[in-house]
Amino acid sequence: MTRKRLHRFQSRDLNEPEIIAEFKDRGCFVYSLTGEDLPDLLIGHQGHWALVEVKAEGLGLKPGQQDFKDLCRGRSLQWYLADHIDDVPQILVAMEHRNA
Q1: 100 pLDDT tier (thresholds 50, 70, 90)
Q2: How would you class 67 by CB atoms within 10 Å of its CB: exposed for 0-12, middle for 13-18, buried for 19 or more?
Q3: What average pLDDT does this structure show over 35-40?
Q4: What is the Cα–Cα distance from 17 to 54, expressed in whole angstroms?
Q5: pLDDT score recorded for residue 56
Q6: Is the pLDDT of residue 44 over 50?
Q7: Does residue 9 fall inside a structural domain?
Q8: Local structure of residue 64 (DSSP, 8 states)
Q9: pLDDT (tens digit, 9 = 90+) per residue, 60-89?
Q10: Which entry of 43, 55, 76, 94 is 20 to 30 Å from 100 by CA?
């Protein structure tokens, strides 16, 4: 099975705790979101806010998640995908530049 999940009845990916820890280590506020098609995290950093969907490497978005991402396009609250902790610094830089 290529999907790496915490439990077959949960929708959280195994890499989510380490990605959350990396955001927190960089001084971010991290709020876990729950709800169908919502991204996994709301991230706050230096006055900027973004939505982050955490996926195991290689997994794509579900159709409802893609619809939510499309809804966010062009709006002030940005949406990002993270599948590895190396994505965290890139997301933070993008958040700063987007909201500068």
Answers
A1: low
A2: exposed
A3: 90
A4: 10
A5: 87
A6: yes
A7: no
A8: H
A9: 888 999 998 888 887 778 999 999 999 999
A10: 55
Q: Cα separation of 9 and 94, whole Å?
A: 33
What's the number of domains the chain is made of? 1
Q: The domain containing residue 85 runs over which residues?
A: 16-98
Is residue 7 domain-resident? no
- Asked whether residue 3 is domain-assigned, the answer is no
Task: Tally helices (H) and strands (E) across the chain.
Answer: 3, 4
CA dihedral of residues 22, 99, 13, 56 (deg, nearest 10): -100
* Dihedral sign computed on CA atoms, order 81, 97, 46, 75: negative
Which range among 2-16, 37-51, 63-77 shows the weakest confidence by mean pLDDT?
2-16
CA distance 17 to 28: 14
CATH number for the domain spanning 80: value is 3.40.1350.10
Cα torsion through 18, 77, 81, 95, rounded to 10: -70
User: Nearest 5°: phi and psi at 5?
Assistant: -120, 155
